[in-house]
Amino acid sequence: MRLYSERNGIRAPHEKTYSINIDVYALLLYCCKRYQKNLTRIFIKNSHHDFTDSDYITFDESGFITRIKVKIPLLFRDEYGRISIPQYGDEYDQYSLLDLIEFFAQNVKDISERWNNERYRNYQTIDCYNSSDVFTDFQEAINEIFFESGLLYELTDKKIIERIANNSSLTMEMENSFKLVHEQGIKDLLNDAVALYKTPNPAARQDSVEKIWDAFERLKTYYTMLDKKRSSEKIVNDMAKGDDNFVELFNLEFRALTDIGNKFRIRHHETNKVDIADIRYCDYLFNRCLSLINLAIQYLD
Q: Which residues 6+ apart lie within 8 Å of 110 measured at CB?
């Protein structure tokens, strides 16, 4: 729910960012810890209550800590090896925290806790279920923190975290249009490019540009009964619908993207290629190439 100052435009909006500061790190980690017992199904601890001589199930925190230490080794820990919140001045890997959130998202299951006896309440046991309705609550809690802090990430229904790209031409309708491409190789490259583009880690951004350029080059050979040059010409002519002005426009853009792919370190990595020095250039290049491809595939036979 938006508060008074937000509703009335008094509060300045949060700066949109991909960087998780320590305060937001703490909120996200606390959110995960609230759902820790929903992992009991994979971290079961069989306990025994001596007084009642009864066995019962609790959450195995030690087993959880050990598993996460192996699975997410760079997750920040304190001097005692416990999963913890960084202090100001500490170095931490924010993407490991996103790994932890995805681990929870993919493994939380519904549970119920109950006392062995409502009168004496000697111990609480946990009943585990196969359903995962609790994921929706976890997803909403995480995404609320992302939104309120200005973080450009989203925990999706696929139970993975994707970055939200500012000023991107990529839409869900566009992604759905990729399904219309009959050539499987182009379709796979487009899907891989988009997945990398949405990946939170900036290191994947360069790979997304490489994949989208691979898709562009493969698109040129879409009509296998023609050589590459004539296949490209057919694509351009179909896009232009016989209008010479647009034939010229699309030919220029095809050539420009081809030259960019050859000059910059996108598909080729020789020492004489120009490095993409700023990660924001990757977003620009990705969207420029994607826009042309998206238009072109609408005119394929």
A: 38, 128, 129, 131, 132, 133, 134
The half-sphere exposure of 240 on its side-chain side, counting CA atoms within 13 A, is 19
Report the DSSP beta bridge partners of residue 228. none
* Tokens 């190439």 belong to residue: 289
Given a contact cutoff of 8 angstroms between Cβ atoms, the answer to whether 226 and 232 are in contact is: no
Instruction: Provide the strand spans (E) within 60-150.
Output: 111-115, 124-128
Domain ranges of the chain: 4-155, 166-297
Q: Which residue has the tokens 């999963």?
A: 83
Q: How far apart are CA 293 and CA 212, in angstroms?
A: 9
Do the Cβ atoms of 60 and 43 come closer than 8 Å? yes
Half-sphere exposure of 197 (CA within 13 A, CB side): 30
Q: 81-138, pLDDT tens digit by residue?
A: 899 999 999 999 999 999 999 999 999 999 999 999 888 899 899 999 999 999 999 9
- Burial class from Cβ neighbours inside 10 Å (0-12, 13-18, 19+) for residue 163 reads buried
Cα(276)–Cα(260) distance, integer angstroms: 11
CA Rg, the chain, in Å?
26
Return the H-helix or E-strand segment holding 56: strand 54-59
CB atoms within 10 A of CB 136: 10
pTM of the predicted model as reported, rounded to 2 decimal places: 0.85
* Spacing of C-alpha 74 from chain mean position: 18
